[in-house]
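Dear Dr. V.,

Thank you for agreeing to look over these. As mentioned in my earlier message, I'm a first-year student in the group and I'm still getting used to reading structure tokens, so any feedback on how I've presented them would be very welcome. I ran two proteins. I've put each sequence directly above its structure. The first is here:
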Amino acid sequence: MRLSDSIESFIKEMMTQEEPEVELKRNELAEYFNCAPSQINYVLATRFSPDHGYVTESRRGGGGYIRIVRVVRPGAQQILYLLNERIGSSITETEAVRLIIQLREQGLVTENEAAIMAAAVSAQALAVPVTEGIKDAIRAREMRTMLTALSARKRDE
């Protein structure tokens, strides 16, 4: 397992459904993993961003800390947020897969549903002779359609 993966797993294990927030000291975390504090910054920037469903707050200095908060919304509300705020007129495959992983981690879709959604927005599914911009627009429409169907299902539950 790569160091970044280990740091991410460690932080996520500290968070629970009841406690969607964790406060850490960057230097202590870097010392624990025997790495530079910049490695911690990298993990925070790439794995705990708003696109991944997290908000991070950092305070520097001797008493400094890092607070990571998992943004938790009820099922249908989370889906509507994704529809209205995160998916515009186009979306890349990487961004779409990131959203699907977020839905899976939050228990809004099953592992099988996530795999099907990822396949539907994959480069293989959109292997047609058009520009990347058009593929990203098609991918956004696919994501919006899937999330709309998912939102309707969540309202019925």
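The second protein is here, in the same arrangement:
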Amino acid sequence: MATVGIVMGSDSDMPIMAKAAEILDKLGIDYEMNIISAHREPDEFFQYAKTAEERGLKVIIAGAGMAAHLPGMCAAIFPLPVIGIPMHTTSLGGRDSLYSIVQMPSGIPVATVAINGGANAGLLAAKILATSDASILAKLKEYSAQLKDQVVAKDAKLQEVGYKNY
């Protein structure tokens, strides 16, 4: 059963949202992924958000482009954590999406990652789930150890060949 919902308003968001899915796959966390427009199909959106908890979702990751209403509207309906990913936009570079998420009214929080921060959204969802799941916590610790090993290996290469030959 999926514990994380990944939702986006357009397939143009897929490259960024897929990064969240890749992290969840790597950590063995089940998720569902949907394209739902809060503006173009409001009835379907409300049905998605209203039934998310009973479907077993514990966290929703929602992409926010242009008008950027999807994360905030999910948070208004879904009683559990929502993570917003502001999408880079051509007109304002994603700042419009970022501001839309971080300026939610009091009582309707949405966690926010960097513009196009799909991977970090997946990691944040995993960390939320890990507060009550020791197996996910162990996988996150292993993931962090792998990140450290990558940096150590890159530094060893730099020390071996020098920056001019790197």
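From my reading of the second output: The two ends are 46 Å apart (CA to CA). The mean pLDDT is 95. Does that match how you would interpret it?

Kind regards,
E.
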